[in-house]
Amino acid sequence: MRTNGWGRIINVSSLAGRMYVPMGGWYSASKYAMEALTDALRLELSPFGIHTVSIMPGPVETGFVSNIQTPVRDAKDVPDVYRRIGDMLRARNDGHRHGAVSADRVAEVVFRAATTKKPKTRYPITTQDRMSLCMKKLFSDRAWDKLLVSFYKLGDAIQPRKENHTA
After folding, report:
1. Cα separation values, 131 from 7, 79, 128, Å
2. Domain spans of the chain?
3. From CA 87, how far away is CA 22, in angstroms rounded?
4. How far is CA 167 from the centre of its chain?
5. Residue 27: active-site member
């Protein structure tokens, strides 16, 4: 690509690369890393005419969620607090699958990013994805945490621990 003086690198990341969700830190960490790599490559390669973009889908209609939920659901010796949180998140995810986009829709966006003359740096897939990213920018970290606790109804599953502040 450098020899040709042009090219395009398309990384498929996720909304999770810009916003975290409860019990999904492991996934968000990998996607935050992908976003950082994409940003760095964009800076490093742009002098060579190489565009680097990130495709950022939210939920996609695949077997991904089922594949990760089954081993967790069937695990033994899981502390009760984690099981309660997992049950709540599964119920929430099952209720929101209607917002998932097809893999074909994601492929259309990848094609557009690959063929447009001046690609955007990021491609959230849906209007809801774009709105979620805007909301995340508007909230402080603590306000976002409170929103997630409320949205995922985590207050019902997590009992705050009493901290001992004696010296």
Report:
1. 30, 35, 5
2. 7-61+102-150
3. 12
4. 41
5. yes
Rounded to 5 degrees, φ, ψ at 125 are -85, -50
Spatial contact of 130 and 138, defined as CB atoms under 8 Å apart: no
Query: What is the enclosing helix (H) or strand (E) of 123?
Result: strand 122-124
Q: How far apart are CA 120 and CA 33, in angstroms?
A: 19
Domain 7-61+102-150 has CATH 3.40.50.300: no
Q: Tokens at residue 1, please? A: 């690509």
Low-confidence ranges of the chain (pLDDT < 50): none
pLDDT score, position 166: 58
pLDDT of residue 161: 54
| Catalytic residue from among 20, 27, 82, 152 | 27
The pair of structure tokens assigned to 31 is: 């996607």
Nearest in space to 23 (alpha carbons), one of 76, 74, 65 = 65
Q: How far apart are CA 106 and CA 162, in angstroms?
A: 45
Q: Can you give the pTM of this predicted structure?
A: 0.77
**Which residues in the chain belong to E strands, given as ranges?**
7-12, 50-56, 122-124
Contact criterion met (CB below 8 Å) for 13 and 35: yes
The token pair that represents 9 in the structure block: 């690198």
Structure-block tokens of residue 147 = 């929103």
